[in-house]
Amino acid sequence: MELPDPASTGRLPPPGPSYLREHEARIGDRAFRVGMTRPAQADEWWVAILWVTDDEGIPPFTDLASPSGPPPDPPAGRIGTALAGGLSGMILEDEGRLQIRVGPVVPAADPSRPWRTPAIVRAAFRWEPARAATLRPNEIANEVLTVFRRAIEGLHRS
Fold it and tell me: Were 58 and a residue from 70, 109, 118, 158 both cysteine, which residue would form a disulfide, CB within 3.0 to 4.6 Å?
């Protein structure tokens, strides 16, 4: 499938083909797809880019927000909280803190309006060694993508 020119739609294209088969996310009556890059290791961190797309490219987070409008806190924070909860037991805890980092790939032009950024985030995790040793790399990636899809669907309900 060929995406329209980003200049005509105002949307970014996905950063490439998804490492795993894209998952379908249902937001209201709309269907989106979520994908991810091939995970990389940086120091002790497992890092991937996660995105939402439709036929026009990567939508802004405002398209995924509740019909009553986006809440004041940034979508990356909500996604991070959902990922931490959904991957509980897999993420390493160090000095009482879960080892997870989630942030926007494209910073908000207006920091007071973080929902007006493309629905693409960078996520980094340090995995619990015993759990990571029992899962193949594709299984870990699939868990992350599944929980990310649920987090995206949850943005609409909040």
Answer: 118
d(CA 76, CA 57): 19
Residues in the chain: 158
DSSP 38: P
Q: Which two tokens stand for residue 26?
A: 């249902």
Compute the mean pLDDT over every residue in the chain, rounded to the nearest whole number: 92
Structure tokens at 28: 């209201």
Question: What predicted TM-score, i.e. pTM, was given to this entire model?
Answer: 0.92
88: β partners: none
Q: State the amino acid at position 97 in one-letter form.
A: R
Say if residue 100's pLDDT is above 80.
Answer: yes
Helix axes 137-157, 75-86, angle to 10 degrees: 130
> Distance (Å, rounded) from C-alpha 68 to C-alpha 38?
35
